[in-house]
């Protein structure tokens, strides 16, 4: 597989491992319109701080648990101002490059800088994804091909899912080729774990058709023949505008529907049995390869009136598919006006000047996320900007009554005043007059990136508090979120994989693993991993009771 090389790559290829682990300091909670000092524990988080360090801080709780990542990194167009997704000349990034890459950083092209910035961040994003997780990255031609090779290297070329083209503009300027689109590169953590087919129930045409169908049902509640007759007239006039519903020409009191030949078994021999035509009382013609359903499933479909018959037994039966059951396919080309994002933001923040240039449209992210996420999934955006991704998630949750969770990371100082404030406004409602948008039930917690867990001398930073240290040690051993256990055992972290973990530590005194400490242990396990400052136990005793000693802080895993 071809790989991409650039100046500084050797300095950043494993840099994600050297990033200091910092704690997240809770600033406030926002609970359905009210700000509180307490954590809401909603699972929704907005984090202010460098996204590289913030991603590292998320590992103890979220490694391998994020279902979908969407990021909109700088496109590296060469224009000014980082926050507008243009150039890698933000002071914080410059400082980081000089520190990590060293003198070589002075010779970096803007493409080298961009790749150095992105590589360790994508490494950490990969770690956070669930085994069936998906990542979407918005990009344009400036770094598309470089990014594709980097993603091939980190995710594996076999996990490339596809490249979505977003046609978001009309360019009437005289050029060689009009630039009217951007891209969304999509990769999976592991393609074998993702669904073979993505479908979404959300579609504007579908919503309109359902509304029309209900109107007809309300007009003709007791006359099925007139209902079908009047709907047929409407369908004939509007068929040209109904794709992909241009075959949904039937209606009953369950709604608008079509017939599907998906009763047949494709490609190989299926099930064989007779289905009797309700009028001729003769067996209906079978599909060439038999039926795809076993007979008991077909019986249930017949009983629930989900099977359509022809005029006689010579026609193969069809499956009745209602419009409300339709799930759209995710296209490789999406046409959506890119200016909609700015319009929405202007409605949310009513001042004359748009507070953020070129925000993504909520509709674009709603479309994509509706295919790959479901109830209680976690979605992460580490280049949060104006907070479009969380807004889209709230809209989507309202549409399908799910409870997707969002985590946003924004390094700029507007993380609270813009990113979080947008979500507050969406929660309470925004706009005026006929543009009034009702609020959406929602809670989140706002965090600042806090102190490092380890000092420069590799000692524990006791200022972070014992709970944060215990949380880190537990995760480093088990890769599981930390939860307080038996209060009667002061030093017990928990039990995992038949092992009991103890963290014998005090801020102001040295601890020693000795016979006296062992006699205080109350938890039974096959083996014991015990952290302390010193150990005076005999090796034979440790082997007898399956005890592993780990010295604080030397043996605490750095990740």
Can you offer a commentary on this structure?
- By secondary structure, the chain is of the alpha/beta class.
- The chain is 30% helix and 21% strand.
- Strands 2-1-17-3-16-15-4-5-7-6-14 form an eleven-stranded mixed sheet, sandwiched between helices. A four-stranded antiparallel sheet has the order 9-10-12-11. The chain has a four-stranded mixed sheet with strand order 18-19-21-23.
- β18 and β19 form a beta hairpin.
How would you sum up this structure in a few lines?
The chain is an alpha/beta fold and 559 residues long. The chain has helices spanning 9-12, 51-62, 91-100, 110-128, 144-155, 204-219, 224-238, 295-303, 340-348, 362-372, 388-400, 414-428, 466-478, 515-519, 539-544; strands spanning 22-31, 34-36, 45-48, 66-71, 129-139, 160-167, 181-188, 199-200, 250-252, 255-260, 307-308, 318-322, 328-329, 333-335, 378-381, 405-410, 443-452, 492-496, 499-503, 512-513, 527-532, 534-535, 547-551. Helix 2 (51-62) runs parallel beside helix 4 and helix 11 packs parallel to helix 12.
Observed structural traits:
559 residues; globular; eleven-stranded mixed β-sheet; alpha/beta; four-stranded antiparallel β-sheet; 21% strand
What's the N-to-C terminus distance?
28 Å
Strand order of the largest sheet: 2-1-17-3-16-15-4-5-7-6-14
- Helix/strand-derived class? alpha/beta
Mean pLDDT value: 89
Number of H- or I-type helical stretches = 15
| Number of distinct beta strands | 23
Radius of gyration (CA) equals 29 Å
